[in-house]
Amino acid sequence: MTGALPATVRPAVRSVREVRERVEAIPDPELPVIGLGDLGVVGSVAPGADGVLEVEITPTYLGCPALTAITSAVQDVLTECGHPEGRVRQVLSPPWTTDRITPEGRRKLAANGIAPPVSPAPGGAVAVELGGVPCPHCGSRATRPHLPFGPSRCQSVLWCTGCREPFPHLTAL
Amino acid sequence: MTTSSDIRADAAVVETAAVAVAVAETATETATETAADVLPSAAGTPAEAGPTDPDLAVHLLRLGDDALVLGQRLCEWITHAPTVEEDLALSNIALDLIGHARTLFTRCGRLDGSGRTEDDLAFTRSERQFTNALLTELPNGDFAVTVARQLAYTHYAVLYYEALAGCPDAELAAFGARAAKEAAFHRLHADRWTRRLGRGTPESTRRMQRGLERVWPYTRELFEEDDVVRRLAAAGTVPSPAPLHARWEQHVTGVVTGAGLTVPAPAWSAGGGRGGLHTEEFGPLIAELQSVHRQFPGGTW
Question: Are B40 and A87 in contact (CB < 8 Å)?
Fold first, then answer.
């Protein structure tokens, strides 16, 4: 091969801020209605000790099968943004909890039929009790646990006694 | 020779145990990339190489083998569980266990200085090189045997990982804290089924009691201590599981008696798994686990 590489092979180098925005916009493979940013799994985006751009990802669950796809998608973003040598680093501490899901992420989950996690109330009292999770279809709070293990590792299934429909619920962790 | 059960089994392996090798990459763009470049836990960067510790590597390999082998056993229930909900529950639990194994193996490969990846450790070791406790490789039996095995393991795993969460190594402590939370969810599943079967029909009570009798001689090995563990515990690197046995016994006794069942008092105790000695049924498990890797060495998809 001779001559200069086509411009598409060497994309313009984007700023760290832009890389972060694009990484945060990647849809979660298992909950594609929200992005990685709203899910709260994106940690710092900054050059590592050797100057190479690093994106920290905190897995939701250690065995989350989406992690490989997420890593690969982030790597693609790094390449597209002119940082082909960039790295994805898995970070376990501090651990991911459902509290890291943004208000916007919660709204999107509910709008798509997935009841968002119910966080502990301020002051330490736990709001999770029977009937505590509103049904994303009819809004009724007359709901009860149905299945502890749902369609993906992070979801359980609740049952609405109002509209008599099961619905997925992002289990508080 | 390929039978339909082989295909089913291979599919289960591909979907679960072999997620470790599942690296989504397009051949044209990343032809020169290896799994180590892409996997999230990839070692090899200077910051992550870290010091070696042969004892800790041995210990983490044991924990990882427990998780991988039990996860693989649970995968055998996929499409065979009593209900579709149980299919989901057992496969989700298996997925968590394989996640634990991946983290532990990756760390082990760095600590022993060999640079082996999680895939190397899962797919290229022979039967005698696996160091899981024999409990985790026991055949599934009927559903009650699987519940009994889960009961014994999950109560142990929560206690041990909670203890590990207090170790001075920040990365290992973070893993312990997260794994303990996940194992606590599995424990809830085991506790509920033990009660349901124990207090169910005369037949379910009889089978649950038989399940407990089947697995109980294998529980003591989880708490065994050898020189490796003693050195690690003495140095304050990681806790020994031995002192946790009394609390484990107290917890499982509460669940078992609450289910109207009797805690078995076996006259013998199994051992040898930590040294690579296994039960007769272990060979086929490993053969199935490694079958895809052996057919397509180095394959990624």
Answer: no
Locate B68 and state its tokens. 């991988």
Examine the domain organization and report whether A90 and A151 are in the same domain.
no
What is the Cα–Cα distance from B210 to B190, expressed in whole angstroms?
Answer: 16
For chain A, list residues with pLDDT below 70. 1-9, 119-131
Q: Write out pLDDT tens, residues B129-180.
A: 999 999 999 999 999 999 999 999 999 999 999 999 999 999 999 999 999 9
Is the CB of A72 less than 8 angstroms away from the CB of B98?
no
> Strand A143-147 vs strand A87-90: parallel, antiparallel, or unpaired?
unpaired
**Greater model confidence, B166 or B36:** B166
Residues A81 and A66 in one domain: yes
Same domain, A83 and A104: no
| pTM for this entry | 0.83
Cβ <8 Å between B97 and A75: no
Residues 20-49 (A) with a CB less than 8 A from some CB of B:
48-49
Average pLDDT rounded to a whole number, residues B192-196: 97
- pLDDT at res. A6: 57
**Residues A116, A131 within the same domain:** yes
- The token pair that represents B293 in the structure block: 């890797």
**Neighbour-count burial of A138, counting CB atoms closer than 10 A to its CB (0-12 exposed, 13-18 middle, 19+ buried):** middle
Structural domains for chain B: 4-35+51-295 (1.20.1260.10)
A1 lies in some domain: no
pLDDT at A9: 62
Interface test with B, best of A53, A57, A68 (most B CBs within 10 A): A68
Instruction: Give the up-direction half-sphere exposure of residue B69: CA atoms within 13 A in the CB hemisphere.
Output: 32
Could you tell me what percentage of chain B is helix, strand and coil, using 3-state DSSP and rounding each to the nearest 5? 65, 0, 35
* Residue A146 belongs to domain spanning: 100-170
Give the Cα-Cα-Cα angle A125, A127, A130 (nearest 5 degrees): 135
Residue A55 lies in a domain: yes
Q: Tell me what pLDDT residue B216 has.
A: 98
pLDDT at B108: 97
| A99 interaction partners in chain B (CB closer than 8 Å) | none
User: H or E stretch including A58?
Assistant: none
Instruction: Give the confidence band of B254 by pLDDT, cuts at 50, 70, 90.
Output: very high
ipTM tops 0.90: no
**Structural contact between residues B124 and B266, judged by C-beta atoms closer than 8 angstroms:** no
| CATH number, residue A39 | 3.30.300.130
Does A150 contact chain B (CB < 8 Å)? Answer: yes
pLDDT at residue A150, as a whole number = 85
